[in-house]
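Contributing new records

If you add data, match the layout below exactly. Sequence lines come first and carry their own label; structure lines follow with theirs. Keep one chain per record. Anything else will be rejected by the validation script.
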Amino acid sequence: MNKHTIRVVVAMSGGVDSSVAAALLVQEGYDVVGMMMRLWSDEAAGGAEHNRCCTPGQMQSARRIANRLGIPFYVLDTKDVFRESVVQYFIDQHREGFTPNPCLECNRRIRFDWLLRHAIALDADYLATGHYARITKNAAGGWLLKKGLDSGKDQSYVLSVMGQEQLSKTLFPVGDYPKANVRRIAGELGLDVANKKDSQDLCFLGNNDYRDFLRIYAPEVMVTGPIMTSTGEILGKHRGLSNYTIGQRKGLGISYSEPLYVLAMNPYKNALVVGTRAELGRDQLEAANFNWVCGVAPADAAFRAEVKIRYRSRPQSALVRMLGSERVRIVFDEPQRDITPGQAAVVYQDDICLGGGVIVKFEDEQSGLQACDKAVDIAW
């Protein structure tokens, strides 16, 4: 098929990665259309009128890049679906005592569902983004999601929600380049975003502080409650569960014979469970709602792999045991101190992302929370 007849919608943000993605596709001769989403923003906390992913300045930048490349550019009003699918998920997860990664939900519900369907409605053959990942085929013709060539920028972790249908209609033009080369290409093409800083933090927060956001939209998670050990000893009072994260040591505001770390949150009793460093490390987790990129669960009941438990964490060697088609138990070779319910456990073999699922509360954690329940009922 002639590339001039292949239409690709590029999700543009006004940043260097999506701009270079669009430019590379134009150079290759595709029929390219730029598209930007106008997302919901938190105006109540911090007074932000615009989501940081789509400020007027970024829209002007994306439109200017599109004009320079000679491609049409559209803006889609995505506020309501983003609020319902991503922001509400973030709020609800905190209410359940989890620490979510809303970027995964955005990729699952918005970018590679809602936006992809709108691209197809424009007779597009593909949706392209500026993600650092690669898509290839295996010997049987199935689609593979692989890490980006630049290991420091690899984004396959947040793309682990994708399946065969999405991969078959998606392009990652910058996935084969180191970030330094992407900036160089932007400079050579005269794109004024060549040295633009990468976006960070949650895009919908008004003032970059998720705590302020939750005080307004989920005030119940910011109510004070007991700090206690897993055996039920009450040590003090916390400032609201969402002010803390698993593995945290500083800022607990309590004294003890040895350093204490956050082990778990009990949202039903509004209790923060703490313990020693020896109690913190755990060599197992369970992940539910597991998405297998290939579309089906592995035939092997158990297999070796590497697993990431946070976006910025290093992959760790582990044994993955199947507990059903959408649930796994992961047993690490070495204890991991930051296993956090609500984050994703993403499984790799070499540079291939097999899929990922949401870390759930584990059996020993549940038993500790039950002891916590009893202690709170008695003492608080």
